Amino acid sequence: MKIVLNRPRCEGHGLCEEAAPQLMHLDDEGELVLDREEFDAADAALAHAAVRVCPVAALRIA
Amino acid sequence: MPSIHLFDARPDISLWGMSTPPTFDVDLFADEVVLDPYPVYAELRERGPVVHLPHNDVYALTRYDVIRGALADWEAFSSASIAFNPMANEALAGTSLASDPPVHTQLRATLAENLSPRALRGLKGSITAKADVLVAELVEKGSFEAIDALARAFPLEVVADLIGFTGEVRATMLRWGQAAMQVLGPTNQRTAENFPVAGELYAWCSQVTADDLAEGSVGRGIFDAEARGAIPPDTAGHIIHQYLGAGVDTTVAAIGNLVALFAHHPDQLALVRESPALVPAAFNEVLRFWAPVHAWGRRVTRDVTIEGSEIPAGAQVAILFGAGNRDPRHYENPDTFLVERNPVDHLSFGYGPHGCAGQGLARLEAHAVIEALSRRVGRLVVGPEVRVPGNTTRSIEELPVLEVFPA
What we know:
Radius of gyration of chain B: 21 Å
Largest interface: A-B, 17 and 20 residues
Number of helices of chain B: 17
Strand content of chain A: 15-25%
CATH class of chain B: Mainly Alpha
Strand order of the largest sheet of chain A: 1-4
Largest sheet of chain A: 2 strands, antiparallel
Strand content of chain B: 5-15%
Number of domains of chain B: 1
Mean pLDDT of chain A: 95
Order of helices and strands of chain A: EHEEHE
Low-confidence stretches of chain B: 1-6, 8-15
CATH architecture of chain A: 2-Layer Sandwich
Helix content of chain A: 10-25%
Oligomer: heterodimer
Low-confidence stretches of chain A: none
Distance between the termini of chain B: 45 Å
CATH topology of chain A: Alpha-Beta Plaits
Strand order of the largest sheet of chain B: 1-2-8-5-3
Distance between the termini of chain A: 6 Å
CATH architecture of chain B: Orthogonal Bundle
Shape of chain A: globular
Structural class of chain B: alpha+beta
């Protein structure tokens, strides 16, 4: 399973990082970095939580 | 995702179970409804996820899942009709608020360039300091009118400094911001009375130039960006219009609400004081508990079927954020204010491509106020809160703080 970022739509609200800091973070410029795009079953709940909280629907699971 | 199949519009769906939605006889914008919409929201949610309101000729979306689904689905739920009267929709045509992709995508990016958390990340320190100074002064005074002295004063100061407003314009910001939200209502007396005031804001934004704004302000920066071609010509005034039209009245409402809720629930304020990490969760709960925006429009572009009920193509939809936020199908014990709940998926900022563009700024402001209040105030003794009816923003007009017990 994979997290897919719609880069132009991301505005750096950072709620995904709060939900899943193990998988992603905002860099010093406020740009989202996916540290682990591919995730396994153990991290599925985290990944889904991050996707769920994005206020502008810039993340999805593929 | 459940939201996908909620809006299944395959023609064959008409072969089974499709029906007209339940109806309810209420004026969604009547004084008594907008003053306290929560009993009506509960009644509507019970009738169905979509309820036709013949009085307003709208289809109200009432439950959490269908509201979030509709907000995500810009193809079926167009923003061409966010207001409930044609004049306001016409006036908003061409703004990011009222457009759909692909036009919306470019307009939104231009707006976000100056308003996203990324753009505002340098402001946290000064906003936090401003809130702390203001709250410290009020605690020292011991009694004050919280809406004027805090809920209005603080966002007006922040936005005025951000845009670089000076002098007289600053004094009229509040009036303009209120009017811009009122005129989104149906063709009623409030809408009619506010059109001339909203027009003043529009006219001012059409002729404002870089020289009118303080040097070094974000507002000045927007004009600089236009001058060097980084954003399309003639968009700077529109962006200023959105800061004022969409960002002032709603933030004033949210901050007034948080003061009132913490006054009513000193135990919840104590929880935040004991665990300052709860500040963002507390703001999410304030927004969930009392949504600043009552109803927001969409127009369906085709026949849309929601759990068996059909909304006909072209119909006006009313999204009731506050009804979704209190949906017991989504939130346990929804009528209780609990800062530890952290409802990070509340609907008060909308969701998806049109999710509130200023939510990053709203969070900076509200978090700063909650931080300062929780640190400095043990308990607020308040008198009765006064509300006046409004078409769009639901806010407190007056909230007398009679006594402050410091933390």
